[in-house]
Write a structure and sequence with these properties.
Radius of gyration: 21 Å
Number of strands: 5
Structural class: alpha+beta
Distance between the termini: 19 Å
Oligomer: single chain
Helix content: 40-55%
Shape: globular
Length: 314
């Protein structure tokens, strides 16, 4: 397999094509502009600084552009960073395309849709089932293509659908241990909790927040979508309000962006499942690049901790 950016260790030289995931302008202490760049390929991403950046550089190295970068991997504050020695935009003779650099979920869209559809089919409450089915059908294409976030977890093509499928499997296992859980409500909450991200995020490539995402956020967007779906289907009743509460409370606490704390048993479980799947994804992706007996880079979303990979791990 071709060597990817996460396969390069500290001190190693890099000379490869990558996609600019994001580009942010800053002003250095000497008053000169610089760019903070995040490059990505199918294996992951790395940060780099382009000092004394010109207005032309801002255009050439904007997000979604392909570049050829040469440099050396350094460790800075517990994270790998690329020290740029040479950087140029892709030219017409370079046989590379954007899709060459996009990390994709380890499951096909067809398989994800089949699994999600089966969970909806198994729902017995007609109100919950019809609202869930309508919203998935309405946003199906984006739902199966978008990442689950811009960074931290499932930030790859089809990451949103893959996150939901993983959470559904978790929910099914937990419901077997605790049969008092209403599986219709729990499964619907899993499927709908992040669906508002098809409005909040710009898409699967060089993902950023939309104006709607910045001003409203995926939680309030989805609460409105559930309300509109209920109106369209001419459905009323407590189920509509409870589904909206599942979405409103899935972040758990106000300081984590949750307008309401979970006040229903299934909402509490949804929060734990969401948190567990997100953290396992972060840990797996961080540790896959670590040699047994060493520590990972700092994981910002996990209290900036370095995680150790035991020597007996494969």
């Amino acid at each position: 397999m071709k060597k990817g950016i996460i396969d390069y260790g500290v001190g190693e030289s890099v000379d490869i094509f990558m996609l600019v995931k994001s580009s942010t302008k800053g002003i250095a202490s000497n008053g000169k502009p610089f760019l903070t760049l995040f490059f990505q390929d199918k294996t992951g991403e790395i940060e780099a600084k382009l000092w004394d950046a010109s207005a032309e550089d801002e255009v050439s190295y904007a997000a979604q552009n392909i570049v050829k970068v040469a440099g050396e991997v350094h460790n800075y504050r517990g994270r790998n960073q690329l020290k740029i020695k040479n950087l140029r935009p892709k030219n017409d003779h370079d046989e590379v395309k954007v899709s060459d650099f996009l990390e994709v979920a380890p499951m096909t869209k067809e398989d994800m849709l089949e699994k999600i559809t089966q969970y909806i089919f198994d729902m017995r409450n007609p109100t919950i089932q019809r609202i869930t089915r309508l919203l998935v059908k309405k946003h199906q294409t984006a739902f199966l293509e978008y990442p689950a976030a811009t960074k931290n977890h499932h930030e790859f093509v089809s990451g949103l659908g893959y996150h939901v499928v993983s959470m559904l499997e978790l929910a099914k296992s937990i419901a077997k241990l605790y049969p008092s859980l209403d599986t219709d409500l729990l499964y619907a909450g899993v499927i709908l909790h992040d669906l508002g991200k098809v409005f909040e995020l710009s898409g699967p490539v060089a993902t950023t927040y939309t104006v709607e995402g910045n001003l409203l956020g995926h939680i309030s967007i989805m609460v409105n979508e559930i309300g509109k779906a209920a109106e369209e289907l001419e459905l009323t009743g407590e189920e509509v309000t409870i589904l909206q509460h599942m979405v409103l409370s899935h972040h758990g606490k106000a300081e984590w962006g949750s307008p309401k704390p979970p006040l229903i048993k299934e909402a509490e479980i949804l929060h734990y499942i969401d948190n567990l799947d997100a953290k396992m994804n972060m840990l797996d992706r961080a540790l896959e690049r670590v040699t047994p007996g060493e520590f990972s880079e700092r994981i910002f979303a996990l209290d900036n901790r370095n995680f150790y990979k035991p020597t007996f791990h494969k």
